[in-house]
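User: I'll paste a sequence; please echo it back and then give the predicted structure.

Assistant: Echoing your sequence first, then the prediction.
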Amino acid sequence: MISLAGRDILHSWGKFVFTGMGLGLLIGVTLVMAGVYRGMVSDGKALLDNTGADMWVVQQDTLGPYAESSSLNDDLYRGIAAMPGVAQAANITYLTMQVRKEDADDVRAMVVGIASGVPGTLAGWPPYLVAGRHITRGHYEAVADLATGFKIGDRLKIRRNYYTVVGLTRRMVSSGGDPMVFIPLKDAQEAQFLKDNDAIWQSRRRTELNPAFNRPAVPGLLDAVIASQSTNAFVNTVLVTLKPGHSPDAVARDIERFKRLTVYTRAEMEDILIGKLIATSSRQIGMFLVILAIVSAAIVAFIIYSLTMDKIREIAVLKLIGTRNTTIASMILQQAIALGVIGFIVGKITASLAAPLFPKYVLLLPLDAVIGFASVLIICALTSLVAIRIALKVDPAEAIGG
């Protein structure tokens, strides 16, 4: 019967192969969708790993810099650094925006403001470079991720200022997959809340016209307010590294108690990124996977049903000569499994070739491929039951009557 199944496949190989290729494309899309989800999770974990932080100190009652807005005074890190168990505390800002290269299209990126210091000693710095050097000046230098397409020496425009790319890093991305561009903290603070010239002029004019600032009781207040409009003394979060032997939960409780801030450990921040930010996307991907599985099952069922109906007379002859029902069922099942194997091979090749072309990171795990292959075989086996049921009901007399 193995030979009979093989001969039957060869007899209608065109329909079989093209159906297998079509099924393979669907399976390829399914694998890529699973890879997109895995890539989103990987991006979130990479973001946390690359910061080098053990804890994130954020504005009270907020979910932190990645999930929602957080604003802290930039001098709070000194008091946090003096807390028991804290090894280092470093200010950092995050701003997602369009970064433009001179005479080129802009790129969606996360601009990260990092505190000055020796590279590798403070959290938030890129853990490694693939080319160039780290930022050494206090202004107008940048380190960019390779995914931005920037090169060393390129001049980038961020708000009104220009920055020279002095270093390149790899796999430094936001939770949404946007590549990162690192600039000095003071520049990032200015860029995050920088107003255009007209807005600054109008704000100062409005302040001057306010009678409250022209009273003798508050001398110098007008000058202070005007000066504050062009400066920004806030950051999004303080990254904390711990001394060996100290519990993150215990240190976090102390900071929350004495500093009146919210603190997240690595486990809690990972839960926010994956459990909240990616939750909606993961449900959407899950729905797509279910739809693709249903469509794939329908295709397999239709082609196996079609192949079975085309050989009703042959099946009747087999029954007439005494062939057992289990043998006939095995032949149909083998064809369905063969169709699934061809489809999976085509799908795996398609997914592997297409994954690098996607703008977002697609992570194809071997475990997902194994689960996908097993799922394809199960779907093919189940969908073949319809054709098997029809074949087993064939009357042997049809071989004579036809």
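The CA atoms of residues 84 and 198 lie 47 Å apart. The longest helix spans residues 13-51.
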